[in-house]
Amino acid sequence: MGHISDGVRDTSSADARASAQREASTVRRVRRVLAIKPFRRLWGVTYLCSVADWLALLALTGLVTKFTDNYMAQNFAFAGVVLTNLLPGLLFAPLGGLLADRIDRRKVMIVADLVRFGLLLSIALVGSPVWLFIANFLVGSAAMMWIPSKDAAVPNLLRRPDQVETANQLGMFMTYGLAVVTGAGLYSVLTGIQTTFNLPPDVFGTFGIANAVVIINSLLYLASALIVATRIPELSLRNVHPVPAGGAAPKPAPAAGDADGADAEERKPGLLAMFRDGLRFVRTTPLVRGLLIGMMGAFAAGGAVIGAAKPYSSSLGGGDSAFGLLFVAVFVGAAVGLAGVPKLARRLPHDRLFGIGIVLAGLALSVVALSPHLAVSLVAVAVVGACAGAAFLTGVTIIGSQIDDSIRGRINAIYQSLMKIIIFGATATVPLLIGLVRPRVVIVWGNALTIDGTRPVLLGGGLLAALVGVIAYRQMDSRRTEPILADLRNVIRRRPRRVNGLLIALEGTTATDTATQATRLADWLSGGPRKVVLAADPALDDARLASLISGASLSGARAQALAAAAVRADIVERDVQPALDSGAIVVMERFVDSPLAHLSTVAGLDTTELEGLADWATGRLRPDITVLLDADPGVPAEPGTSSAEHHWRVQQLLTEMAAANPDRYVVVEAEGPEDEVAARVRTAVQTALAGHRVSGFTPTLAVEPT
């Protein structure tokens, strides 16, 4: 009997082990997503196109410098290539979203890849600097058609909506990690052939190597088009995973003369109507409105960091080395943030995680602005990168999992367009703002610190991001009745986030008593403002369990324990969890503790194993309040049990469980008339609610005892 108490006392150790197992599940999540063949092929296509994008940036910069010997023109070559590639994102991103929502996304991607192939090939053949910039602008325009279609199609390739987050992680790792290394490495190899093999300078001609790199670049886009056309027909699928009502697309208004709008349903809306519907959807959907408001602040802060990074590093007295360290710190932080989002999402809802990430990024940026030393700046910049990376991935996940497929392309396009516009605008404006402040040198803790324009600019950007993050949080938060401090405590304690509802369990030795009192408690709580659900029929579906055991001829104790776990898992998934997620109060009798005590007493099974089985069956769901009906062990056992001794042992085990965890249990005297016991149960539940405020609930949920 002592091992029951030991098992309960070691709950914290079990939580730590379970947490470690959840951390290790990241690899399994990635494997499950990559096991989906259409997504795996699209991931490969993303790799090809991302390598081509980064290679094009380097290849075209190298090629344009060959067209002139002018030093000033060569210095502006990189900026010109970047500008002509980003400018289409400012102009044509909404058009790409409209095409993604109206036309077969697979066809859009094929055409865009073929256009990019032809344009890059023409750059090598024409050999004109003017055409290079024009063609690069058109390549960027084609990319703005390709990206929204790809992003909007990803959720339809997955088996479950909850895989969107992992898929986005893999996509960002490929785009901003592996592809960058591959593109830069390939460029270095190709351009280093001549010097590596000590070949004469004119062996390939003036533009030989540069043109070869551009041609290879174009072939990557051609390969992408062929793979999409022949190997990923699933990209044409739509609305595979319907989204909640809050993310559904708006219905198009019926045309004039269509009384019932039936003809309008059959007719596809025009591009202008789709654009208006997209704007109306953003304006009337708090989730999307908050998402875009939040990202505007985050991108503005990011642009401030980019534009101020070089002069800020000089103000710290570190020069180019400090600039390099800050650059590395922000990207290391972003990588940590991207990797940590799925773990945080198990403890915080995505809408809350998004707003909190932006607020923390803004506060960390304020620390960067006030930092007196490089070491402090490096830590703060890493935190900015981590929070910004987490917010970006969370935003993309919200679009992929909570926005209707028919409008997802437009929202993705707006998201991408805002990112480019704001970052570009902030990066260009910040140097002008910095120049308005005359530098001053002050002494802080004995160290000389240069106060120039970077400090107020970064401080302003940080405060702006924090303010916008609060606004976004208030717009998006779907759990306004739940205090955020409870979620933050779960993050600190590394526990899964609590559901919205409240779970009350009644445990005891006899199914008759627990069933009666559970029904009475549910009826009493129904007088309050919350919906109340009685999760199981009397005796916890014992009839179904008996039918399962007899039908399968299960005679062994372990087999019967597994069958009981299966019944409980079905009840939790079918009744309990959906009710809790909707914010209801769930009253359930004989949830876990009584079955554990019965099986341990009757079959002599190890309680630690039974607790592990129960945790697995219920998804580690535990009641907020457990009411233990304490009956006299001398009362004869109910029909079907072996003896009064069995009744006594079960009650003793339940009492040990309650004594080991008094914060979760309330023990109620179960002797006497049913009405008196019911009154005691009501008083105990109301007292527990008043004393603990479990999961944000207050005593006003209940009604006064009658």
UniProtKB/TrEMBL annotation:
| Major location (coarse) | membrane
Q: What is its EC number?
A: 2.7.4.9
Catalysis performed (reactions): dTMP + ATP = dTDP + ADP
Asked if the Swiss-Prot or TrEMBL record annotates the protein with the keyword Transferase, the reply is yes
Task: Enumerate the subcellular locations listed in this protein's record, separating them with semicolons.
Answer: Cell membrane
Q: Which residues form the Thymidylate kinase-like domain?
A: 516-679
BP terms from Gene Ontology: dTDP biosynthetic process; dTTP biosynthetic process
Among InterPro entries, the record links this protein to:
MFS, MFS_trans_sf, P-loop_NTPase, Thymidylate_kin-like_dom, Thymidylate_kinase
Q: Which keywords, in A-to-Z order, does the entry hold?
A: ATP-binding, Cell membrane, Kinase, Membrane, Nucleotide biosynthesis, Nucleotide-binding, Transferase, Transmembrane, Transmembrane helix
How does the UniProt record describe the way this protein sits in the membrane?
Multi-pass membrane protein
Gene Ontology terms for molecular function: ATP binding; dTMP kinase activity; transmembrane transporter activity
Q: Where is this region: Disordered?
A: 1-20
Q: Which is a Gene Ontology cellular component entry for this protein?
A: plasma membrane
Give me the segments passing through the membrane: 42-64, 76-96, 170-189, 209-229, 290-309, 321-341, 353-370, 376-400, 421-437, 457-473
What job does the chain carry out?
Phosphorylation of dTMP to form dTDP in both de novo and salvage pathways of dTTP synthesis.
Name the family the entry cites.
Answer: Belongs to the thymidylate kinase family.
- Protein name per Swiss-Prot or TrEMBL: Thymidylate kinase
What species is this protein from?
Prauserella muralis
Query: Gene encoding this polypeptide?
Result: tmk
